[in-house]
Amino acid sequence: MRLGLSLLVPALAAVLIVVFRARPNLREGVSLAAAAVLFGVVLQLHGAVSDGARPELVLAEPFPGIPLVLEAEPLGVLFALVASFLWIVTTLYSIGYMRGHHEKNQTRFYVFFAYAIASVMGVAFAGNLFTLFVFYEILSLTTFPLVTHAGTEAAKRAGRVYLGILFSTSIVFQLLAIVWTYFAAGTLDFQAGGILDGRVAAGAVPVLLGLFVFGIGKAAVMPFHRWLPAAMVAPTPVSALLHAVAVVKAGVFAVLKVTVYVFGIDFLAGTGASVWLMWVAATTILLGSLVAFTKDNLKARLAYSTVSQLSYVVLGAMLATSWGVVGSGMHIAMHAFGKITLFFCAGAIMVAAHKTEVSQLNGLGRSMPVTFLAFLVGTASIVGLPPTGGSWSKWFLGMGALDAGQAGLVVVLMLSSLLSLAYLMEIPMKGFFGKRSGPPESPGIREAPLPSVAALVVTAAACLLLFVYPDPFYRLMTMVTGQ
Amino acid sequence: MREELVLRVGAKVLAPFIVAFALYVHFHGDYSPGGGFQAGVILVAAFVLLVLVYGLEAVQQVLPPRFVQACAAVGVLLYAGTGIVTMLLGANYLGYNVLAHDPEHGQHYGILLVEAGVLITVFGVMATIFYHLAGRGRSE
Amino acid sequence: METATDIVLLALLAATAVGLVRIRNLFAVVMLAGIYSLLSAGLFTVLDAVDVAFTEAAVGAGISTVLFLGALALVGHREKKPTRTGRMQVLPLAVVLITGAALVYGTMDLPPFGDAANPVHHRVADHYLEETYHEIGVPNVVTAVLASYRGYDTMGETTVVFAAAVGVMLLLGGGARRRRGGAAPASESESE
Amino acid sequence: MRIVDHLPILQVVVPLVLAPLCALVRSRRLAWGLAAAGSVSSLVVSLRLLSAVMASGPISYAIGDWAPPFGIEYRIDVVNAWVLVVVSTIAAAVAFYARVSVQAEVGDRRIPLFYAAYLLCLSGLLGIAATGDVFNVFVFLEISSLSAYALISLGRDRRALTSAFRYLIMGSVGATFIVIGIGLLYATTGTLNMEDLSEILPQVWDARTVKVAYGFLAVGLCLKLALFPLHLWLPNAYAFAPSAVTAFMAATATKVAVYMLLRFFLTIFGAAFSFGVMGLDRLLLLLALTAIFSMSLVAIFQANVKRLLAYSSVAQIGYMILGLSFASVTGLTATLLHLFNHALMKGALFMALGCVVYRIGSVHIDAMAGLGRRMPLTMAAFVAGGLSLVGVPLTVGFVSKWYLILGALERGWWPVAVLVLITSVMALVYVWRVVEVAYFKPPPDDEPIAEAPASLLVPTWALVALNVYLGIDAGRTIGVAEQAARTLMGTAP
Amino acid sequence: MMSELLSQVVGSYNYWIVVFLMMTGFYILISRGNLIKKLVGLNVFQTSVFMLYISLGKITGGTAPILVDDPEALYSNPLPHVLILTAIVVGIATTSVGLALAVRIKEAYGTVEEDEINEIEAGIDDRRAPGRAALRGP
Fold first, then answer.
1. Alpha carbon distance C148, C154 (integer Å)
2. Which among E29, E105, E132 has the least Cβ separation from residue D161?
3. Which residues of chain A have pLDDT under 50?
4. How many domains in chain D?
């Protein structure tokens, strides 16, 4: 029932948004209220799941034996918690951003935003691979209008890349992997310990796993990461949603879920099938960081940072150890809060100061201290510095790597942290200490509109809070690994 | 056209014989080669002869295009209808046995009816096609 | 005697067919096609298919020729000289040769021509010959099979003819108006 | 005898009788009413037949009360009951669609004759599917083909005439090849009844005549079903025919030809002969893959959207043949599912294009700029149909693709599975080209374009709804297709 | 071996000439550009197929299948005759639709030669949308 609500609330919100399209205040009110209600629903689910319940809801049965089914389990609840909470914040932020930026077609924006969240809920609570695939594809479709929101030639091109990569990887690799799984296991249900153990020849496991990892294009593992920077043309709240919450996290979440519930980490560890993919992930981590370095455009830099960070999650999953999985799941949450803070800040800078390039930020921090402080917190969380939540996930990932006997990966993690420290720290440093070049800016530069600032303060605060109190996420992840 | 008097008279004389021959071919189809289809074609031959001699308009007045078109449809209806009648009488589709008191007569009636359907359709269709092809040249 | 007639007729048919390929005056072609039909009708008679011969003569040599001539009056009667004589004929020739070779290959295993023991004459055909008199009471077995045993085929045949009439009426029923110009010229019935 | 026992013959005869009536009446409305009544009645009959056959096995109907093989037999099993449902479902949708569409594209005077030809075509297709006699197949094939030539020639573009003529030539060659094949079969067996043939043929497998007959039937049928490289007649025929005709033909004619292929090769010759002796699977695999790949590629570069979809149809026929080439129950299930599913999606897509033609008179891709806003419902239907064509989950397209891939994996043919998926992406590309133009390009001028009328939209959306509904609840269609596949493979319980 | 071949030839000569006729018709059909000539080719092709069928039904020494009061009478097979009667009718139906199409093509293109038609069609610009004016409807 509550599972159904988790899809229904945002979908209903979308309808109401259309109904109230002529009255912006009411329209945004509906968005906010729906976000709050959804978060409440997910919290309740969290309670139930913590008590050991596994609510299930069959929506339809397209194929005999392969239903479209929702099921709440710890990993999904973790993802849903993050996504639904950040929906509230993002909505708050968008109100300030969209009005401050005078965007067109705001109603369409909110409608598809709501649909995107509904599909994220579907991904989070998918009870089998088929359901996961369905909502995964719906998510690609519902976010497409958001990516191409501007409607310009550039936006169109970006949309083509976005949909092209996401659809072709999911159709060619992921679907093949799913049918293969069904062919081998006779079922697609997610089960603790996996369904493939002993059903696939050992030699084929690395291939099948590779099909999943590359087929889940939203995880942006190189070389299928191009859509992510391309989608930068979207309005900033969309970027925030795409890159911090909905789309990318749906991708890495799917990878993690497949690893844990389809393959089973014991099976993977036993066959060593995931080792080659660890190094693919490690390469993505390093290359993503290096590319981020070269980008002057703030959003592009953040995008490549995301590419790099996503592979942390993938790496954690591929480690196929308990700590790795815990770290992976924690990183979904921690990176979400950190990265969304950074994007909010980037958007705030764009709305308030109309700056998009890193090199233009000199001295801006003095006009927008709150924004740049929040950016600093977000940076710390992404890099993994205490006292922010990000340090926990990095810690567990490192433990996982050692557990898996891959000391080399620990070096990669350290190296990449240093790199991200370098390319992210440059921004608040410039903001606070950089000299303004050229003629003094027009004196009008102030903080962004209140809702936006409030939103980024909330997420930055959450980054700090999660250092002290990572418990909810940690507990969920230990339930997943069964420790 | 006066010098074609011989032709006209000849055609006039010949046409009834051709029609009679067609009817013979039709009704004698049970015993000798021939049947509805061949009879229909022969009827068309008579018709073509008349058109060639008297001209399209004159023949069209006697046999209006709509009439021959209707023939084309009616023949099919007659054939298919025979099947429906046998169905209503309790047999399978086109099971002629039930058309009369005993199967053999039933078969006779059935064959006669459907051959008539063929005759009418073939005549109607061929005449229609001929009208259209021949008429095409003039209206230009 | 039968065989001799058969051979002569077949040879004539072959000669006519070759003529049909070569002649370019369409009037002559249509006339020759009529002759081809007449010859084949003769062949059918020799092969005991009198009903078929009758029909072929009436349709192939009669109706069909009339229709062809009617059409020729409208489209002109001279076939253009093929412009690409050399290249054009190779592919069709290859297709025809392969098809023909396949058919000849297939006839190798065909039961000998005219043998009463061939499977083709049993299973169904002998039933017709034996039972027609009792079941239908008509001496012409062809008529019996045509109108009763396989009467449904004949109904289909009638429908095909009717379909042809519908097709011709749809195509030529609009009155003759030349359509010219671009992709979607105006239609006939607009003028009405 | 109850009327229920006559269902097999009523299936075909009702539209066949209504056709001459259509030609007799002068009123357009009455003619349309007859066509609609005929289509709906065949849908009702076919559904009842399907449920009867599913419940209690094949039905045999001896026409003229002559016991087979002496008379002509109608024999309905799950396979052809399924095909009858496919054809009559589309026919019913198209009949309602045609009323307004045909009036706009064909003109008033010829409308009664149009519906006569439509009903003839329908009854021809149904007759092919229902019959259990090989020569009867030929007769009804010609009924449907002749009326199809006429229907296609009615397109407004003058190229409709030449495409109809080419179709006539290719179709007649195909039919003649089929007649040769049937003749050779008859020569070796002495019978024309399918059931009878399937019993006698195993005794004469070795005869070269049988193999040559097989070859001629294969070529003839492949011409009819437009299997690459014998597809040349199809793209133009679909592109220039009136919209309602395109929707009807694209969704039914080639499907019935595929059915004929299945019936001849699997029921009459038998799976053992086709796959074991003739090695049909390998040849078809090659042709199907080439068809799918090359035709999807060609479709991507078409500027005329109707032609684009026509090439896509040739590719999709490749999918059906691919399923057959797996020589397994799963593969055939995929074929039979795709038979129906492709009919549903192409029907919906061509109907949506018909709405576009109705309003703007062209389906050139440039002419469709900005239509997403001008005709939202039409274009939404197009998008939905297109997604189904791509094989997005929760549409019927996904269901058939699923079984196709499963079949490939069963055979261990990985590259085939990958190729199928890659061509789905190609389908996405050509569908997306249209979507992009319709939604992102501004309309060329400010001439207001209204949404298509409800009488066109309702049937279109009915098919779209089926596309989605049967994609979400595919259990029943899968069940029927699977049982039909077992029947064809001779492994039915 | 030789005699086997000979008997093969004697047994099949009828079929072989029929095959030759068929292929001649088929050749005219696919090699000629004139639409009328194509239809003539189709006719020849089909008529020759009819001969194949009728040859199959022939029994040496038999008579036409019209029953006479003679128990010893040997009749040729009536079934191919029936099938071919049907096929002849189908053939003429196809021919007439083909001719009607050819007439219309002549009116629309001014020619019935395939290469000239192709040339004209290659020159048609699809981009020039006919617009709504070309539609008859509302």
1. 9
2. E105
3. none
4. 1
Q: For chain E, which residues make up each domain, given as ranges?
A: 2-64+74-121
Of the candidates A171, A295, A315, which has an alpha carbon nearest to the alpha carbon of residue A255? A315
**Poorest-pLDDT segment among A443-447, C4-8, D257-261:** A443-447
In a domain, D49, yes or no: no
User: Cα separation of C67 and B129, whole Å?
Assistant: 8
Q: Which residues of E78-98 are buried (b: 16+ CB within 10 A; e: fewer)?
A: bbbbbbbbbbbbbbbbbbbbb
* Inside any domain, residue D151: no
* Total residues found in chain B within this entry: 140
Does C75 contact D at CB distance below 8 Å?
Answer: no
Task: Give the count of beta carbons closer than 10 Å to the beta carbon of residue E57.
Answer: 29
Residue numbers of C between 132 and 191 with CB closer than 8 Å to E = 132-133, 139-142, 145-146, 150, 153-154, 156-157, 160-161, 163-164, 167-168, 171-172, 176-180, 182-187, 189-190
Cis omega before residue D242 (within 30°)? no
Answer whether residue C112 shows pLDDT above 70.
yes
CATH code, E2-64+74-121 = 1.10.287.3510
Instruction: Give, as one character, the DSSP assignment of residue C119.
Output: G
Cα A429 to Cα A417: distance, rounded to the nearest angstrom: 17
Which range of residues forms the domain containing residue D353?
279-493
Share of chain E above pLDDT 90, in %: 36
Q: Which residue has the higher pLDDT, D244 or C106?
A: D244
| Chain D residues with at least one Cβ partner in B under 8 Å | 1, 6, 9, 13, 16-17, 19-21, 23-24, 61-65
Range with the poorest average pLDDT among A319-333, D200-214, D437-451, E35-49: D437-451
Whether D409 maps to a domain, the answer reads yes
The C-alpha atoms of residue E45 and residue D92 are separated, in whole angstroms, by 38
Q: What is the pLDDT of residue C184?
A: 39
Task: Dump pLDDT digits (tens) for E38-85.
Answer: 999 999 999 999 998 988 888 887 888 888 877 778 888 899 999 999
pLDDT in single tens digits along all 140 residues of chain B: 455 677 777 777 777 888 888 888 877 766 777 788 888 888 888 888 888 888 888 888 888 988 999 999 999 999 999 999 999 988 899 989 888 888 888 888 898 899 999 999 999 999 999 888 888 765 44
Would an 8 Å CB–CB cutoff place D406 in contact with chain A? Answer: yes
Q: Give the integer Cα–Cα distance in Å for B98 and A9.
A: 69
For residue D475, give the nearest of A64, A68, A172 by CB distance.
A64
Which residues 412-471 on chain D approach chain A with CB closer than 8 angstroms?
417-418, 421-422, 424-425, 428, 432, 436, 440, 471
Query: How many DSSP H helices and E strands does chain C contain?
Result: 9, 0
Higher pLDDT, C166 or A456: C166
What's the gap in Å between the CA of B132 and the closest CA on chain C?
6
- The CA angle B6-B11-B15, to the nearest 5 degrees, is 160
- pLDDT tens digits, one per residue of C28-85: 999 999 999 999 999 999 888 888 998 898 888 888 999 999 899 888 877 776 655 5
Task: For C5, name the nearest residue in chain E, comparing CA atoms only.
Answer: E14
Q: Where are the domains of chain C?
A: 1-82
Is C100–E22 a contact, with Cβ atoms under 8 angstroms apart? Answer: yes
In this complex, does chain A touch chain B, defined as having at least 3 beta-carbon pairs under 8 Å apart? Answer: no
Q: B30 CA to chain E: closest CA distance, Å?
A: 9
The answer to whether position D481 is within a domain reads: yes
Q: Say if the Cβ atoms of C183 and D157 lie within 8 Å.
A: yes
Q: Who among C109, C179, C187 is closest to D107 (CB)?
A: C187
Q: How confident is the model at residue A404, as a pLDDT?
A: 79
Which pLDDT value is given to residue C106? 84
The answer to whether chain A touches chain C by having 3 or more C-beta pairs less than 8 angstroms apart is no
The highest-confidence range among A185-194, C68-77, D42-51, E4-13, by mean pLDDT, is: D42-51
A137 touches chain D (CB under 8 A): yes
Residue A68's beta-bridge partner residues?
A60
